[in-house]
Amino acid sequence: MNQRDNTNQASYGKLYGLFIAVAGLLLLHPFSLQAADLPTVTQLFKDARQEGTFQTSNAKDLAQAENLFVRLLKGERSNALTEAWRSLGFQLRQARINERIVLVLMEDPKHKLGRGFYLFPLKAAGSDLLMMPHSFFDLHTGRIGMRLFDEGLFCGAAWNTVHRHKYPGGGANITDHDDDLPNWDLADLQDTCFTAMTRAFARAFPLGHLVQLHGFSKEKRKSRAGRDSDIVLTNGTETPSKNLIALGDCLKIRLAAMVRVYPTEIRDLGGTENVSGIILNTLGHNGFIQIEICRPLREKLKKSASTRKTLISCMREAWH
Prior knowledge:
Helix content: 40-55%
CATH class of the largest domain: Alpha Beta
Strand content: 15-25%
Radius of gyration: 22 Å
Distance between the termini: 64 Å
Oligomer: single chain
Mean pLDDT: 87
Number of helices: 11
């Protein structure tokens, strides 16, 4: 073979390598796709919540999921990451919220084990994480979280995909429960993808905030403070952090609502048994924030962009 043949072979080899690299990128970032060509996050979320039952994940899978969450939160967007999630029974794909393209992590339809539904910005941004562990039970928290993720700057967001109690054939709007039913509460259970994500978040963002949205019924509170409150803020401990107090102060000024901080202003809804809070506090991470919201204010947050903007701006000003 002469020198010219060697040169041509080398050129073909480089072109082939470039083709393979581009093909791999297309699997996750198809340049030909516009937002209008992609499925909506709303439709994928609806699909993820259909059927499925909760099963506890084993320690090996959870350790792998934690490492993969770290890579996602830190900004990796690669075909290798897509394949790694696929080995755990997940799909990592693109979808759209309005005209914005985001990444969706959801269970494969053949592997629905109640492990959750997750969103990430297409390009990593932000250092605060949203979690909605009771998107069936705490009415509107799922939709509020979706809109906050779209309108704010969050590194990711997570929703549960099975009701916190087992309701055969139950729908998404069930709000009552029987204490004898199984507990599939991702704010309580120790070994879940939510706890894996919590640990991953602590590794990826030591100074970030993990915000969980919850709902409560005023009429079910036994204390006067509980019945009068619209929002209760807690970090899951008996000592509210400076950032928690700063968030409360901002919301008290800007939001037409009764805002109280646990435990100095209210003894209800302290979230002291919330597993994500326990994990972060045990690790010495001070970023856990649980926001309990009464139903009328949840209705308002669902409908009112300006109210959501107030919540987002208070988070930003209190923490950054």
